[in-house]
Every structure is written in structure tokens, then in C-alpha cells.
Amino acid sequence: xxxxxxxxxxxxxxxxxxxxxxxxxxxxxxxxxxxxxxxxxxxxxxxxxxxxx
Length: 53
Description:
This protein is mainly α.
């Protein structure tokens, strides 16, 4: 991996972390349990009634 590619990836990671921190500081967060419950309902609905639990 070239030095430029590495630096670009680190900059992208830093930006993502900073966005996450800004969201948390602005109270734009949800408890993990609520997110997992929502995702479980979503994927169960997509799987249909014949899908195994």
C-alpha cells in the first residue's frame, strides 16, 4: 500500500470517527438494543414466514 493510499484511508477513518463523535455530542444516537431489534424485524420480514428462527 502506498503512503498516499494509507494516508487517504487514515483521513477517511478520522473523518468517520469525527462524524460519529459529532452525532453523539448532538444526541443523534440510539441504544444498540433498539437498533438490533429494528434490524432483526427488518430481516425477518425479508426472509418471509417460512424462514427458520
